[in-house]
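Annotators were shown the component list below and the corresponding predicted structure, then asked to write short factual statements about the assembly.
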Amino acid sequence: MATEPITEELAGVCVDSHGSAVGMPQLCGDWIGNQVFWLIITLVVIYFILARVALPRIASVLAERQGTITNDIAAAEELKAKAQDAEAAYEKALADARAEAQTIAQKTRDVIKADLDVEMAKADAQIAAKAAESEQAIAGIRDSALANVEVVAKDTAAAIVAALGVTADEARVNAAVDSQLKG
Amino acid sequence: MATETHGAEAAAEGSALVFHPMDQFIVKPLFGNGDVGMFTITNVTLWLFLAIVSVVLLMVLGTSRRAIVPSRSQSIAELAYGFVHKMVEDVAGKDGLKYFPYIMTLFLFIVFANFLGLIPMSFTTTSHFAVTVVLALAVFLTVTILGFVKNGASFLGLFWVASAPLALRPVLAVIELISYFVRPVSHSIRLAGNVMAGHAVIKVFAGFAAIAAISPISVIAITAMYGLEVLVAFIQAYVFTILTCVYLKDALHPHH
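Structure shown to annotators:
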């Protein structure tokens, strides 16, 4: 890369008068000291930069990341366990509630049935009472009707007798009607 | 590119072809035209400094928010951290993690140097053997000293293959010894060689672009090479790092 020609007086064993390399520049002894000197400085500088700053920093970052990942995984596992517990609790609560609901329904059904039975019995008794009362009333009415028939018959007989122009002997008419009715 | 001065070569080929694939690797003073001394601020200094800046941008500024949910830059920084950290742990074992900052330094430096070198007109520091040999020798010396400090003389058991038949062991010991000392050579040349070759080939293709008839092919070839070089830039950094981990493992656990 001899872009600027090197002056004539500098031409030595490594570079010709036109600034071109003589043979392999790699084998030029004149430059070795310079290269080795600066290389050693470079290596020492890089070593200290790496050993003192860069590598401990990267190591700590990697360790920190590993720690974070481990913690996060642990936390995730914990949360998962919690979620599973919660699910189990929920399932249990649901089953309990269902069972309880069934019990309550059964109980209510029983209570209603018992109430119903009682009411039915009461109603039956009332119906029976009403029926008996009605029968009694009917019997009373029938008796009173019969009594009325007797009175009417006696009156009618007396009236008929009177209509016949005979003065009715009340006692005899009554006795006749009675005997007829007993007939 | 210095056309009139290389007119002779160009004329010899009967075209405007000028190849200087190695000129990109020349070390130059950044200020003035002085000599390149040991402490001269050169293009090497500039691109090494830019590598430091890149490391700071990614690893320090990128992670400055310390977010639990990372931003893009923090993600990349964490990705790089995790990538090398896992590599060290997998290859060198748990006790190798003590040396993780050291290996991370090598990896980030090579990655950034390689990728900065892929910027057009830039200077690729890792294409120089001087640089990669220092890196490889640092690894080799550290690992060897560490091996003896941690294991004492039993570190030599690395070369004594106990599972092999007794007669073969001395032969194997010689082979193991040679291969051990070839490690820094292959370690450094692999990196610099790959990077340098790729850059030089791109430069050669760029030279062909001067011929109008070939230039479309040349541009396509440069694009393809560039794609390959992007891969090489990362893969060579990876290879260098994982080999460092393997050598570290040998030092910590020398018995096969």
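Statements collected:
1. The helical segments of chain A are 32-163, 170-182.
2. Chain A has two helices and no strands.
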